[in-house]
Task: inverse folding
């Protein structure tokens, strides 16, 4: 029989082995496969990152996650989406420019950043509803009501503490990716009557500044 310390050590060694295999398979410029809904890693609670990787290995993993996110393309990617049950995520969003949708969604650019062991709590009770998609649930999108402002805590990849309030679309990305680390997919929080294929009609619904036309046509309540 092994004690908890031995079990944790074995878990950490196994995690590092999987990371090293991913890095070897991808090479210095390649990407990784994004696992899809139904993969157990997407429903597991990620283990906290606690130095399981050497500094150069962590940097290589972050770079791989960033390349994979860009290639997808997406604005966020969590480690479980690569089959890695560890609490890491990368975010980056170019924004929507000066448009009606950008203003309605508070969709400003988000510079590249890494979240390590992140947690969030709503700042207040204000919630906003917009269409979301997910790189691990390809082909569909749905409306999700989320907190407009969240208090984010955790660390970055250099172990610098994070303690900040994030607003608007950036807050939505933070919530979406942090949820992945707890085994939650956006469809768990979605208004399922809003579910739409990522086709011409679905693109029209998702392109609305607010999904008011979709709510009327598909007959779902729109919060707030």
Result:
């Amino acid at each position: 029989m092994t004690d908890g310390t031995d079990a944790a050590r074995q878990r950490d060694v196994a995690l590092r082995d999987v990371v090293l295999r991913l890095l070897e398979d991808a090479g210095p410029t390649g990407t990784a496969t994004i696992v899809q809904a139904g993969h157990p890693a997407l429903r597991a609670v990620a283990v906290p990152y606690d130095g399981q990787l050497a500094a150069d290995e962590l940097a290589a993993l972050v770079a791989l996650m960033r390349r994979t996110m860009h290639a997808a393309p997406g604005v966020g990617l969590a480690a479980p989406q690569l089959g890695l049950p560890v609490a890491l995520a990368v975010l980056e969003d170019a924004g929507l420019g000066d448009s009606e949708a950008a203003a309605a969604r508070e969709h400003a650019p988000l510079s590249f950043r890494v979240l390590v062991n992140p947690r969030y709590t709503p700042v207040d009770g204000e919630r906003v509803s917009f269409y979301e998609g997910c790189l691990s649930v390809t082909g569909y999108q749905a409306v999700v009501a989320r907190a407009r402002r969240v208090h984010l805590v955790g660390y970055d990849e250099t172990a610098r503490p994070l303690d900040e309030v994030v607003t608007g679309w950036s807050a939505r990305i933070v919530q979406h990716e942090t949820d992945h680390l707890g085994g939650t997919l956006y469809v768990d929080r979605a208004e399922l009557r809003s579910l739409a294929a990522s086709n011409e009609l679905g693109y029209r619904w998702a392109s609305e500044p607010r999904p008011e036309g979709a709510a009327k046509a598909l007959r779902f309540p729109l919060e707030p």
User: Anything to note?
Assistant: Residues 4-218 form a domain with the Peptide Deformylase fold (CATH 3.90.45.10). The chain has a mean pLDDT of 95. The first helix runs from residue 4 to 26. Residues 25 and 203 are 34 Å apart (CA to CA).
